[in-house]
C-alpha cells in the first residue's frame, strides 16, 4: 500500500498562499503527486500554481495507461507539465495583471518499487529511507553558483539571491524539464515540498517525522517550518511505501 499525506500552509509572513498541491490513486496501485510554488504579481502566483496543479492532475488521471517503464512514465509526465506550461503561459498573455506569472513544479508517479520524478524550479523531491536523499537539483542562480564553485553549499543556504530561479512553468512558451527514475524501497518514503519547507527545516527531520508517525508527518513538518520562522508558504506531500506492513 502506498500512503499519501499532504498539507499546505500560508506560513507566518506571507498574506496569501501561492503554493498548491494535489495527489491521487492510479489503476494498478500506483499513485501520483504534484507540488507547485507560484510567483508573480498580487495574485499571479496563486493563479499559476492552481492552474498548473489542476492541469497536471487532469493529464495524469486521464492519460495514465498502467505502463510503468521509464519511457512511458517520462512521456506522461513531460506531456502533463508541457500542457500545464502552455495553459499558464497563454493565460498570462491574456490578462495584463497576470503578466510574468509562473510556478515551480515537482511531480511524481510512484509504484510499489519505482519512483519517477519530473521538475522545474526549486521545489524539491527527497527519498526518505535511512537518510534523506535529494532527488532533484534546484534550477536557481544560487545552485549554479554552488556548481561553479563560487560559493559553498552552506553559504547558499542564506544567500540573498536564493529565491531567484532559472526555470519556471508558464513563463516561456517552452519548458525544460528534468526527469529521474529511482528505486522505491519498501518502508521508504518520498517527500515533495516547496522551498518554504526545505529552506527552514533540515532534511534529517523529514525522515524522523515519517518514522515517528507517517499519518502526522506533514502536519509536524509544517509546524516545524513555522517554528523556524515561517518566512514563506509551506507545502509538504509525502508518499510512504508501506508494502512491508501488509
Task: Summarize the helices and strands and which ones pair or pack.
Blueprint: E1 2-9, E2 19-25, E3 31-39, H1 44-63, H2 70-94, E4 102-110, E5 114-120, E6 124-128, E7 132-134, H3 141-147, H4 153-156, E8 178-183, E9 189-193, H5 195-198, H6 204-212, H7 217-227, E10 234-241
Antiparallel strand pairs: 1-10, 2-3, 3-4, 4-5, 5-8, 6-7, 6-9, 9-10
Helix pairs in contact: 1-2, 6-7
Organism: Ethanoligenens harbinense (strain DSM 18485 / JCM 12961 / CGMCC 1.5033 / YUAN-3)
Domain PPM-type phosphatase: 4-241
Pfam family, one: PP2C_2
Describe the structure.
The protein has seven helices and ten strands. The chain has helices at 44-63, 70-94, 141-147, 153-156, 195-198, 204-212, 217-227, and strands at residues 2-9, 19-25, 31-39, 102-110, 114-120, 124-128, 132-134, 178-183, 189-193, 234-241. The longest helix is centred in the middle third of the chain and has 25 residues, at 70-94. It is globular, with a radius of gyration of 17 Å. The relative contact order is 0.21. The model has no long low-confidence stretch (mean pLDDT 94). This is Protein serine/threonine phosphatase. Residues 4-241 form the PPM-type phosphatase domain. GO terms for molecular function: protein serine/threonine phosphatase activity. It comes from Ethanoligenens harbinense (strain DSM 18485 / JCM 12961 / CGMCC 1.5033 / YUAN-3).
Amino acid at each position: 500500500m502506498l500512503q499519501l499525506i499532504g498539507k499546505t500552509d500560508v506560513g507566518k509572513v506571507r498574506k496569501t498562499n501561492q503554493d498548491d498541491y494535489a495527489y491521487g490513486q492510479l489503476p494498478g496501485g500506483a499513485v501520483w503527486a504534484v507540488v507547485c510554488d507560484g510567483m508573480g504579481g498580487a495574485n499571479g502566483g496563486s493563479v499559476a500554481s492552481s492552474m498548473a496543479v489542476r492541469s497536471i492532475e487532469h493529464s495524469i488521471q486521464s492519460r495514465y495507461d498502467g505502463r510503468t517503464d521509464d519511457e512511458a512514465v517520462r512521456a506522461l509526465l513531460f506531456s502533463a507539465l508541457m500542457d500545464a506550461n502552455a495553459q499558464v503561459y497563454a493565460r498570462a498573455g491574456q490578462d495584463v495583471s497576470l503578466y510574468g506569472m509562473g510556478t515551480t513544479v515537482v511531480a511524481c508517479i510512484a509504484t510499489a518499487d519505482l519512483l519517477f520524478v519530473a521538475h522545474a524550479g526549486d521545489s524539491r523531491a527527497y527519498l526518505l529511507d535511512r537518510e534523506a536523499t535529494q532527488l532533484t537539483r534546484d534550477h536557481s542562480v544560487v545552485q549554479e553558483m554552488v556548481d561553479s564553485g563560487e560559493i559553498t553549499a552552506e553559504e547558499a543556504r542564506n544567500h540573498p539571491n536564493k529565491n531567484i530561479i532559472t526555470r519556471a512553468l508558464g513563463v516561456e512558451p517552452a519548458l525544460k524539464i528534468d526527469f529521474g527514475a529511482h528505486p522505491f524501497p519498501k518502508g521508504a518514503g518520498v517527500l515533495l515540498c516547496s522551498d518554504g519547507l526545505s529552506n527552514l527545516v533540515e532534511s534529517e527531520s523529514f525522515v524522523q517525522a515519517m518514522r515517528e508517525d507517517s499519518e502526522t508527518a506533514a502536519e509536524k513538518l509544517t509546524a516545524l517550518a513555522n517554528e523556524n520562522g515561517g518566512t514563506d508558504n509551506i507545502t509538504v506531500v509525502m508518499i510512504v511505501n508501506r508494502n512491508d506492513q501488509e
